[in-house]
Structures are given as C-alpha cells and as structure tokens.
From TrEMBL:
Upper taxonomic lineage: Bacteria, Bacillati, Actinomycetota, Actinomycetes, Micromonosporales
Residue ranges with Polar residues bias: 435-462
Basic and acidic residues composition bias: residue spans: 490-506
Protein species of origin: Actinoplanes philippinensis
Coiled-coil intervals: none
Protein name (Swiss-Prot/TrEMBL): Thymidylate kinase
Residues covered by region (Disordered): 353-526
Length: 669
C-alpha cells in the first residue's frame, strides 16, 4: 500500500470474511493456473467463522502475475501487505492483512515451490492439486500437512496427522521417493527417516520438531542461502515482546494529520484511535501545532525575545477581583468601554486623563481613584506603579504620569488582577496599564502525557510586554499589559485575542501595520523580521524537544502516535521560507503516514466560519502540495470527511498503519 492513497478511491469497502474468500476464489480461477487452499480440510470455512489472527494459506503455481490476488484485494478492500518475500532461494510468499467487519483477517499467498525457509519440499512443477476442491494431494499434501508444521516447531494435531497419512498412502511411489530423497539431502537421514515413519503411521518423536529446526537453521546459514536469510531477518527472527496483534514483529508508527481548521482532523483522529485500539494496536496522542502560542515554553520564548504575549491564557472564572496592594477589588462591567478617555492616549485605547474614565471604573487622577485601586496622577499612583495621565508617553500606547513616575523599582505587588474586555465592537480598545519595572511572576505550565498543552496559569505578569486573559472566548474578561520601553511601542491585542501585528505563534496574520516585506510600521517587535527569524529557530528546537519528550518514548514502546499536525507548519510561520523549517524537517524524522482530511471548501467553512473561505482554501491547497512532495516514510493519504462514507476511508488509514507497523524501521518505500 505504499505511495499515495487519494479520496477518489471509493471502491474499497469493509466486508466480511466470506466475501473476501469468494473474491480470492474468483480471481485465482480467472488466472487459469493451479492453486489450492493449504492446511487441513475445511480451513477456509474455519477462517471465515474466526475473528482471530490465524492465516488463510493459499498456494499458487504462478508468481504475482496478472490477475494478481494481492492487487485484487488491495483494490476491493482496505488491506496491508505485512510480509513479502520474493527470493527464490527461500519461500516466496506475500502476507496480506485485510480490514474486515470482525477485525483483521490475514491471507498468506505462497508462490511457486512449496518451501519452509530454504528447505525445498516440492517443486512447483511436481505439486498435484484436486481442481474441484482446490486441495493439495499426494506428496504435496504430506509436505504441507506434516513436514511444514514440524519445521515450524510443532507436531500436527491428530486430525491433521491423519489427513497427512491418508495423502501419503494415496501418493504415487515416484512422489514418495522424491520427497524422501529431498528431505534426506537437506535435513539429514535421521530427521528424514522420522518424518517418513510418522507419515507411514508411526508415533512422532516428541523431539522431532527441535531436531528439524536445528537442521533448518543450519541450512539458513549455509553460504548458498545466507544472503537471502539476512535480507529476510526481520520476519525470520522470533518476535518475542515485539509481537503485534497478528503475532508478527511490529514497531511504533507516527500518523500525522494535517489540514486547515474544520477539515476534520479531530474526527479522523478519534475514529482512527478507536479502531486501532479495538484491533489490538495501542495508541498515543501528540500535538505539533502552533495554535495561538498555547504551547510549552512559548511564554518563556516571548519573554526572552521581548515580543508578543508573555502570559499564557488563564484558567480563571469570569469574575476575579483585581487588587493592587491592599486596595479593594475593581468591579468593571464587561459591556463598558474601559478606556474612552480624552487626550492622545485615547488613540491607543488607554485612559490618560481625568473625567470620563472614572465613569468606566478606571480613574485617571489622584484622589477618588484610590478607592478603585488604580491611580494615574502624581502621588498615590507611585504606590501602585501605575500611571495614566497624559504626557509624552501617550505616543507609545501608554500614558505614564509626567510628574511622579516611580522608576524601575516601582512594581505592582498586589494580588490577582482581573478586568473586563470591551465587547461592544471589533475595534473597541482594550484596557491596558504599565508596570514600570519587573514584577514578581509565576509561570506554571501543565502539559498532558500526549504532548497537548492543558491549562497554563500565571500571576503578576512582568517584563515590558504581557497579557492576562481569563478564558478563550471573546466574552471573557481580558487585560493586556504593555511595556513602556522602545522595543514594545504600540503593541497590544484586540478584544478577540488577535495580535495587532503579525502573530509570533503563526496561527494567522493580524491586522497591524505590516509592510509588503513583513516589516512592521515603527519598531513593533511582533513585526520585526529578525525577531521572527529567531522565533522560527526557537520553534524548530521546541519541535525537536517535543518529539524527544512525547513521540520517541511511545515509538520505543511500539505504540501508534496520532499527531495533530507536524513540523511542516513551520514552513509558513512565523517566518515563511526560514531555514529553521528545513532544519526541523531534517532533525525531526518524517511521519510514517501523512493524512490530509479533506472536504468541499463550503463544508469546511460551515464547520469553522471564523476563518475566511479564501484562507481555508489556500491552506488546503498548500497541504495538497505538501502531500505531492511525498515526504512521509510510507504513504500520504487524502481522506474525504464530507459524508457518512468517511468511516470506510478511516479503514484505509487503519490498513496503512498495519502495513507501516510491519515494515522494518529503517526501510523507506
């Protein structure tokens, strides 16, 4: 199944085992060559009734020629090639796992000679078959029913042993002699004699399987066959603790889901996880997006770079008291404007003069303002480290008092801070205040085991820039804190949480004053190309840490990691075309599967109307172009999520995961 699987391939469907058996029968009959079911009588019927990992073994005289049953299964049903050996010095066979309505069904096709490893039992030209029942007969049946299980380490059960003895009796003398001669030459006279005696009715020696396997190992390491043995070492070695649900050796797999918001990533991830776990494959979750900076370490990076928000979202209720020092709480109605003051600072959404500001819960002069816990003129303001009287600083988006700035040492030492955002319109200003020095701060980040950030809390924001938000919705109170230094001129946030300039976290572009080359108007840190380049390198390193911390341990344990996005997001943000993106794609291993959930753009827009249709279309086109590069180790897939048939498309992903899990780790398509 390696390669690209497109959404247009809608003919595959999940079926029952009876239908799959009938499809195999029809394809092999159309081929016009000899074929037969292997194993004891009734094996196909038992396989249909079963829901476990037992194989349905099929012998085909020809190799994988047209019509190929393996290709026919891949066209009709979600299926995965879990074993494929074509070296004529050993058994040539192809194992296929098919997603059925009762679990995974395994079909193993043997091509040409009947072998066990390098041991030749019956050449293809000497295999005899009952064309009506599609059953092996004569010496070929003895080799399949008796010799094959012994070489695999077990003595067959009474019923199977009885069938082998009947076939030995019915075999021609020439066939019996030829089989005995080949067994003697390859396994030694003693082992061959015990096998022939068991076929003739003698009680098998309990030590016979062990003795036979020692001879098999010696033949596998012989100079004539050691090359073929080494090439198939992944499937030859006992699986041990690495055994998967099908009893074969498996490894961890990374499935990366990409796509614009509303394409269906979360739905596909949930369905895929449920189906894999129901089939015995353990799963883990990981997050590789850059959504609005809610990632471990982003707040720290912004503090170091002095750009953007330095405070992660708060997990607080809508009404948290705002207190500076011992002042009473400030109660502000979320529906009121917080900064409609007069003076130059009004252009920046800041209260800068006495008068109307007091009506909105923000005082701008000495005296009554102290009752609200805020002061903006000389005197009491110095005790709180806040000032908002008009003055030269108004041009910077903040109006510190002209008479009594507290200086770097004056900080806010009060308790939790809360204020209400204006929700009256998209252009409403946001309440801001300045901390003229560094404040006491606590930045505690909690991350789930899957790598997705959970609640992140902070108190007493410090530095030149920062913000505090009490929730993610636009109706939740918000307070932004802007610095007064030259590196943070005019930086703020709109009430909807978007940055004024280009956002550092890369989840889209803000309004702002970006020029054609991305350079901001003025010295806005969010728009400064050098800082965004540094941010790109920071994200590249953070991606590497996230892979080492969350993905690699899960892969070592043999789990399937379902990742929301991958490092490819770094190609577009925060600095499109940055070398950091290329370095990240080299350092972080490519995912095994790259899956793009897709739907008509109007369907996507109905799911996520907060983004424009043009933006969603552009993002999906970029992801389609990404898949065209074939960056994944095993396969890229487009999954149609627009209708009820998306469940069958997820079955295709399940099959691709099964195939990747059985592929050696170092092998790429």
């Amino acid at each position: 199944m390696s390669g690209k699987i497109a959404a247009e391939q809608v003919s595959r469907h999940v079926a029952g085992r009876a239908e799959i058996r009938d499809t195999i029968t029809a394809v092999l009959d159309d081929a016009g060559t000899d074929w037969a079911w292997q194993g004891p009588a009734g094996a196909p019927e038992r396989w249909v009734a079963d829901n476990g990992p037992a194989d349905l073994d099929v012998w085909c005289a020809a190799g994988r020629q047209s019509p190929d049953p393996v290709a026919a299964l891949a066209r009709a049903y979600p299926s995965a090639v879990i074993a494929d050996a074509a070296d004529p010095r050993r058994l040539r066979h192809t194992g296929v796992a098919v997603v059925t309505d009762t679990g995974l069904g395994v079909v193993d096709f043997t091509h040409g000679d009947l072998r066990v490893g390098p041991i030749l039992l019956i050449p293809a030209a000497e295999v005899t078959v009952d064309p009506a029942a599609h059953r092996l007969t004569g010496a070929a049946a003895v080799a399949d029913l008796l010799v094959r299980p012994v070489l695999r380490g077990r003595i067959p059960g009474p019923e199977r042993l009885a069938e082998a003895r009947e076939a030995w009796t019915a075999a021609t003398p020439t066939g019996r002699t030829a089989l005995a001669r080949r067994l003697t030459a390859q396994l030694g006279a003693a082992v061959a004699a015990d096998l022939i005696a068991a076929a003739g009715g003698a009680l098998p020696d309990p030590r016979l399987p062990r003795r036979a396997r020692l001879r098999l190992a010696a033949r596998s390491l012989a100079p004539a066959t050691i090359g073929a043995t080494w090439a198939q070492r992944h499937s030859i070695r006992p699986a041990g603790p690495s055994a998967g649900p099908l009893g074969l050796r498996t490894r961890g797999v990374v499935v990366a889901l990409v796509g614009t918001d509303g394409s269906g990533k979360s739905t596909v991830a949930a369905m895929l996880g449920d189906r894999l776990r129901s089939r015995g494959f353990p799963t883990s979750q990981a997050y590789f997006g850059m959504a609005r900076g809610n990632l471990p370490g982003v707040a720290l990076a912004r503090r170091l770079l002095n750009v953007g928000s330095t405070a992660p979202p708060l997990a607080l209720d809508a009404a948290v008291p705002l207190a500076l020092d011992a002042a009473p709480p400030l109660a502000v109605d979320a529906g009121q404007r917080l900064a409609p003051s007069v003076g130059p600072a009004a252009d920046h959404g800041l209260a800068s003069a006495a008068g109307p500001a007091a009506d909105h819960g923000l005082a701008s002069a000495a005296g009554p303002a102290a009752d609200h816990g805020l002061a903006s003129a000389a005197g009491p303001a110095a005790d709180h480290g806040l000032a908002s009287a008009a003055g030269p600083a108004a041009g910077h988006g903040l109006a510190p008092t002209a008479a009594s700035e507290a200086g770097p040492g004056r900080t806010s030492t009060g308790g939790p801070v809360a204020a209400a955002a204006d929700t009256s319109g998209p252009q409403a200003p946001v309440a801001t205040a300045s901390a003229l020095g560094s404040a006491s701060e606590t930045d505690t980040t909690s991350v789930s085991e899957s790598g997705r950030p959970t609640e992140m809390e902070t108190s007493s924001v410090s530095g030149r820039m920062g913000e505090m938000r009490t929730g993610s919705g636009s109706d939740r109170p918000t307070m932004a804190v802007a610095g007064t230094g030259p590196d943070s001129e005019g930086v703020g946030r709109r009430p909807d949480g978007e940055g004024v300039g280009r956002r550092l976290d890369g989840d889209g572009d803000g309004g702002g004053r970006n020029g054609p080359d991305g350079e901001g108007g003025g010295r806005n840190g969010l728009d400064h190309r050098r800082l965004r380049r540094v941010a790109a390198w920071y994200y590249a390193g953070e991606y590497g840490w996230r892979y080492l911390r969350h993905v690699l341990p899960a892969l070592v344990r043999g789990r399937v990691v379902i990742a929301d996005r991958w490092v490819y997001d770094l190609r577009e943000s925060p600095w499109p075309g940055s070398a950091a993106a290329r370095v990240a794609e080299v350092l972080v291993p490519a995912p095994d599967l790259l899956v793009l959930p897709d739907a008509p753009i109007d369907v996507i827009h109905r799911r996520k109307p907060e983004r424009s249709v043009a933006e969603q279309r552009q993002q999906q086109e970029r992801f389609h172009s990404l898949l065209a590069e074939s960056p994944a180790r095993c396969a890229e897939m487009v999954i149609d999520t627009s209708g009820p048939a998306s469940g069958d498309r997820v079955a295709d992903v399940v099959a691709a995961v099964v195939e990747a899990a059985h592929r050696p780790r170092g092998r790429r398509r």
